[in-house]
Specification:
The complex is a heterodimer of chains A (253) and B (394).
Chain A (H helix, E strand, L loop, with lengths): L10 E12 L2 E12 L3 E5 L6 H8 L7 E6 L2 E2 L4 H10 E4 L11 H11 L5 H14 L15 H13 L5 E5 L7 H16 L3 E5 L3 H7 L2 E6 L2 E6 L1 H6 L4 H12 L1
Parallel strand pairs in A: 3-8, 3-9, 6-7, 7-8
Antiparallel strand pairs in A: 1-2, 1-4, 4-5, 9-10
Helix pairs in contact in A: 3-4, 3-5, 5-6
Chain B lengths: L3 H4 L11 H8 L4 H28 L4 H11 L7 H21 L3 H18 L4 H21 L6 H20 L13 H27 L4 H15 L3 H15 L8 H26 L3 H9 L4 H16 L1 H14 L11 H9 L8 H30 L5
Helix pairs in contact in B: 4-9, 4-16, 5-6, 5-7, 5-8, 6-7, 9-10, 9-12, 9-15, 9-16, 10-12, 11-12, 12-14, 12-15, 13-14, 15-17, 16-17
Classes of the chains: A alpha/beta (253), B mainly alpha (394).
Chain lengths: 253, 394
């Protein structure tokens, strides 16, 4: 299952020697990698290893200070127009959902399409309702985020990102803030999305999901990628001592 | 099967309600609470007794109806009074239509205003005043009936409300030979105009200053911060004096800015500084994840502010904002130091008249009640707005 039939050879994200500092702290120490269209990459590693920071540089929520990032042919610079263009192509799902509490679930989803994509209100609502249907929560459309469960909120957040019809989806620990019994409903949606051919970069500790869905697993430690491989190789034949330790610890419990 | 006993529903402990139970729980729960309750009742009795005796037997209320005209409109010429009436009737039309078109809150506000009209109608005011109240209430009722469920009129009514502001100013001021200069504006009319303009203008200005103080651009941030800190550090009276004495010196040639307009500008600029800090407090409470989520769907900075930050910030600081509106309403009474005769100023000038000497309690009490009605109305509406927006719920 590791080799996904949707993966092509066209690169969609190209990172060249990406560095990032928080004041004096060197978070990313030269990341060089390429993601292909339709590829599903799972990024894992201990906390503080820079994995979240890395995917946040791809839609410029964090600014990289050295190196180049090219997303779908557009280079990320400080030019606001480029940043906004890329953000329209890149959807993001957060650990804490970050839904807008003052808007209904439906309006959370339609805000971007109406304001950024200039879609008409009726077309945006129709699309949003279809997405909620796909997420299996159509009956929650007119409720507010605070009135639904964490798993449902995260699915609304995924629908909100998908409503912009992105080419790439970034997931920043999407299940880490959920109660255990809600994790699978979110993972199911992500699995379905993976099969539809979306390019996905997923930071997660869900190793079962990684083994099943990923084309490639990247292991971050102290700001560098110390190992990357297809899931079978990664889990069964890890090369690096740090990776071995991480795998034994995450699979133990 | 024995387990069934554990799954049976257990009713909550008996929580009987009712006035007797409430009295017993809250006022007579122990012997010393009973004594305190009785003592309190005795004190309340004597306070109310003396207040009622004064209000109904000793006070000389003649001073109010005799001066009602100047209390409400100052020295506005009587033959031009139709200008004031037409403004009131115009607003009554808009109010009635709005209540018909929008449900809920607008309707409640309209009913509250209608009640004020009804009270005026019943009190022993001059017959012409009661006529106005009656006509205004009838207009509200008729327009309410006309406007009911006419959703497609919404836009026009909103435009009407926006235009009502210049309409009011032009109607009151008049033109040509009929001009009523602002020196003749006074009483409650002047107080309401100053407060309404101040509130309407200080709100957007305050929001802009709050955004300015949080701006990434140092120049804008410094200008906003210096403005806010300077204005907050100076008493309003000082600013009013500056507006009336210093400003004319800097004005070119014989250009004279109207006294009322100068007071309006000063009140607005003063309140905006406080408004800015209230709004900034609300903005600071918004978690950074909200902005990130908005950016992640590609919203620009202005749209993020407009759709994500400001709605959440303003909702959370409604109590502080309305507090500022109420403070502004009462602060309009300070304009009397620069020679404007607002409600309080007129009250003082009435007491300067030998006919009405020694009637301070009556006049000041009446003015206090008027201020209270308007301030409480604002507070009431803000509570309704909070309930309507479901604040605390989502």
């Amino acid at each position: 299952m590791a080799e996904n039939e949707n993966t092509t050879n066209d690169p969609i994200i190209i990172c060249e020697d990406v560095h990032k500092w928080f004041d004096d702290f060197h978070v990313l120490k030269g990341i060089t990698t390429t993601f292909k269209k339709g590829e599903k990459a799972v990024i894992c590693g201990p906390s503080g290893s820079g994995k979240s920071t890395f995917i946040r540089t791809i839609n410029h929520l964090e600014e990289h200070q050295r190196g180049t990032i090219i997303v779908d042919g557009i280079e990320l610079s400080n030019d606001l127009r480029n940043i906004n263009l890329i953000r329209q192509e890149v959807g993001m799902v957060f650990q804490q959902f970050n839904l807008f509490p003052h808007l209904t679930n439906l309006k959370n989803i339609t805000l971007g399409p109406i304001q950024v994509r200039k879609m008409s209100k009726s077309a945006a609502e129709e699309a949003a309702l279809a997405l909620l249907e796909r997420m299996d929560i159509a009956d929650q459309a007119y409720k507010y985020p605070a009135e639904i469960s964490g798993g449902q909120q995260q699915r609304v957040a995924i629908a909100r990102a998908l409503a912009m019809e992105p080419k790439i989806m970034l997931f920043d620990e999407p299940t880490s803030a959920l109660d255990p019994e809600m994790i699978s409903e979110v993972l199911d949606v992500m699995r379905e999305l993976a099969h539809s051919g979306m390019t996905m970069l997923v930071v997660t500790h869900e190793m079962g999901f990684a083994r099943e869905v990923a084309d490639r697993i990247m292991f971050f430690d102290e700001g560098v990628v110390i190992e990357e491989a297809a899931p079978a190789d990664f889990f069964d034949n890890p090369q690096h001592e740090r990776t071995k330790l991480f795998i034994s610890q995450t699979l133990q419990h | 099967m024995e387990n069934l006993a554990f799954t049976q529903e257990v009713k909550p402990p008996n929580t009987q309600k009712g006035p007797v139970k409430w009295l017993k729980d809250n006022l007579f729960s122990t012997w010393y609470n009973s004594i305190l309750t009785c003592l309190g009742l005795v004190i309340l009795f004597f306070v109310f007794k003396s207040v009622f005796t004064w209000v109904f037997t000793q006070a000389n209320w003649k001073v109010i109806p005799a001066n009602l005209q100047i209390l409400s409109i100052g020295s506005y010429p009587l033959e031009q009074i139709w200008r004031v009436s037409s403004v009131i009737y115009g607003l009554a039309v808009l109010l009635g239509l709005s209540a018909g078109i929008w449900n809920g809150l607008t309707r409640q506000i309209t009913v509250a205003i209608g009640c004020i009209g009804a009270i005026i109608l019943l009190l022993p005011f001059h017959i012409s005043v009661r006529e106005h109240a009656l006509i205004a209430n009838v207009i509200i009722a008729v327009c309410f009936a006309i406007g009911r469920d006419r959703d497609n009129w919404k836009r026009w009514v909103v435009i009407g409300w926006v235009l009502s502001f210049p309409w009011t100013m032009i109607m009151l001021h008049g033109f040509g030979a009929d001009t009523v200069t602002t020196t003749n504006w006074g009483g409650l009319l002047l107080t309401l105009i100053l407060a309404a303009i101040g509130i309407l203008a200080c709100f957007p200005l305050g929001v802009l200053l709050a955004l300015g103080r949080r701006s990434q651009l140092p120049a804008i941030r410094w200008v906003s911060t210096i403005y806010i800190e300077t204005v907050r550090g100076v008493p309003l009276i000082t600013l009013l004096f500056m507006g009336s004495l210093l400003l004319p010196i800097f004005m070119p040639g014989d250009f004279q800015l109207d006294k009322v307009i100068r007071a309006m500008v000063v009140l607005t600029l003063f309140s905006a500084a406080y408004m800015a800090e209230n709004v900034r407090g609300g903005l600071q409470a918004i978690p950074p994840g909200q902005v990130e989520a908005a950016q992640a769907v590609g919203l620009t900075y202005p749209k993020t502010m407009l759709f994500i930050d400001l709605p959440q910030a303003l909702r959370s600081v409604i109590p502080a904002i309305v507090g500022q509106f109420i403070a502004l309403f009462k602060d309009t009474s300070l304009v009397s130091v620069v020679g404007l005769l607002d409600l309080l100023g007129i009250g003082r000038s009435i007491l300067g008249n030998p006919d009405w000497q020694g009637l301070q309690p009556e006049v000041y009490l009446f003015i206090a009640v008027i201020y209270f009605i308007f301030c409480y109305a604002m507070s009431f509406v803000s509570q309704k707005v909070e309930a309507d927006l479901g604040i605390g719920k989502h």
